[in-house]
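Structural prep section.
Before we set up the soaks we want a predicted structure of the protein with (2S,3S)-3-hydroxy-2-methylbutanoyl-COA in place, mainly to decide which crystallisation condition to try first. Input record follows.
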Amino acid sequence: MADIHQVNDLISIERQGDIALVCIDNPPVNATGQQVREGLQQAIEQLNAEGTAKVIAIYAAGRTFVAGADIREFGKPPKAPALPDVFNVIEDSAIPVISVMHGTALGGGFELGLSTHARIGIEGLRVGLPEINLGLLPGAGGTQRVPRLAGIPMALDMALSGRMVSAKAALEKGLIDRLESGDPRDVALKAAQDVLDGTLATRRTCDLDTPRDDKALEDTAAMLKKKQAHLFSPHKIVEAVRASYLPRAEGLKIERQAFVDSMDTPQRAGMIHAFFGERAVSGIPEAKGDTRPLDKIGVIGGGTMGSGIATSCLLAGIPVTLVEVAQDGLDRGVATITKNIDGAVSRGKLAADKRDAVLGMLTPSLEMEALSDVDLVIEAVFEQMDVKKDIFTKLDSICKDGAILASNTSYLDVNEIAACTGRPQDVLGLHFFSPAHVMRLLEIVQGEKTAADVLATGFALAKKLKKVGVLAQVCDGFIGNRILAHYSKTASYLVLDGASPQQVDDALEGFGFAMGPHKVGDLAGLDIGWMTRKRKAATRDPNERYAGDVADRICEEGWFGRKTGKGYYLYDGGAPVPNPEVAKIIDAVRAEKGITPRDFTDQEIVDRYMTAMIVEAARVVEDGTAKRPVDVDMVFLFGYGFPRFRGGPLHYADTIGAKELVSRIETYAKEDPHYWQVPPILRKMAEDGTKFADLN
Ligand code: T1G
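Run finished without errors. Recording the tokens verbatim:
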């Protein structure tokens, strides 16, 4: 009968002769919450005090070894014992302590392993230091122990990239000592026995010296200064890794201070919001419950979107029937998909030996009848309602009962599309973002009659495709494009009133956007916005200041951006440079409108742009198009390149405060009372002190 003693609810000690097995059992991912920390420390201290065990092996129950500190504790008053102190107790144990890691040993979990005197990985293990993704840095010895085991370049790479390292690579780099297969407890028992037999060597990591590599530190510091000046924790990582030259206590002190400093930044708050937000959006009741099969998917349209969607499904292991109306279009679609799949192989997203099998799941066809046996059809054709209605009418008669009919429309009325079928309950919107096999956002648009299991299947598809599914209600542009349509006018107004397109882009890139709006327009194609403005011309609000003069004239010249080599910028293969013709167009429009250009500071540009985004985002929450503020935030993080460390437009709004936002809008409204109006929800927040976070 095994002698098992519960140190507390989450930590147990099992004695097997001279071996003590310490088991962590804290579902779902064995995060090192306060009870785990306390129980671990007690177990090691107790075993050392007893002095009977000759080796201690730490392992974890469940699907993974420790996946890190408990992120839910962040932002709350810290509770003893602190993780670094627990790990020092382990490292200082007079009895050798080994760890057996399986699944994903990340952050504090990997640091736990590093503090033990030998590390055993189980096949399939991945290790990592992902704290950078939370606006932090390894705060429990990772920056001190990885350099000692694997050198400074590896430590910098792991901590700055946050990437997961395979068990094989970890073994090669000396981060783990063995790679075994089997059940964690059995592997722990065997490894402990090997320590007793002398066939598994143990040593304290802190007894090792970090091999000097000042060049790696200097080069990295210089690169970060240039590329990530606006972030906080990356620079702290270099500082902490450099401290690994020092004795453990001094190095850990520097790391700890860097960690505490990072914990206090708004960047950490933004990135933690992003972490939980990504999970919250699919944690809604609409995403739960029965779902329909997704064993075979049909895609109509082999253009950029259709091919991207088909690629995404194929990479998720779902067979796809791709339908086009003409052979050349079908051939182009297949060629694009093939290129996308080869791209996934070259990016390491797909094993080369799986390429042919994945492409083998693609069935191209010119006949819509080929869709008669699919579980879900995703229509991705031209954005014209009559074209879509024609297709859905045909699908209604071709597809089997229970098949789901989805449109990838980016703004058209899903209810109107559904109404032309006899099965509106089987219809929904699945709005992918280009390139669909790369961008993680999927807006799941609920029609008035969409059945509950159809909606839940939309979320199940998002999960299968490793996308972030966000529920949206029907309106022009759903969540993201509706908000974009509003705030993009502010960029145009700024240019009309005195800023240059490049200044607007530079200011917003300084805020953290990967690309400014004019560069984005050039990339996507200025003709898309041009078509939308023409589509809306007849219904445009006469009281609204027209924002499209400059862009219209650029398009009238045939300058659509990258694809024509000319747009707001010139593209000749090097870095894009401002198109001098655009400045002339801007001057001409200003002259015709009697506008005297004025200067804007970069901060004014950011404030106006972000306030406009927040105004429409607030309205989208207010009218229920989005379920909560966090849903809007995730749309912008995963679909619009919003800087992750800012958390999303409404998380960012809370950092400004409703009072300040209302004051700004009222100031801007003096110039343009029609465009700048305070949404009631924001007025209420300014009065009662509530925040968008209170609505999540
Ligand atoms: N703390 C608290 N909860 C966590 C968690 C964590 N570290 N990781 C996951 N969860 C929850 C998650 O919210 C979800 O909950 C459930 O577990 C399943 O997660 C001192 C300071 C491990 C790869 O950043 O990357 O250590 O929604 O849906 O897709 O230096 O979770 O079910 O209620 O993501 O299989 C560093 C974060 C922390 C790892 C599993 N560690 N987690 O992915 O499941 S900082 C991380 C992940 C740190 C130290 C520093 C993934 C996963 P619910 P899931 P999954």
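Observations: The mean pLDDT is 96.
Flagged for discussion at group meeting.
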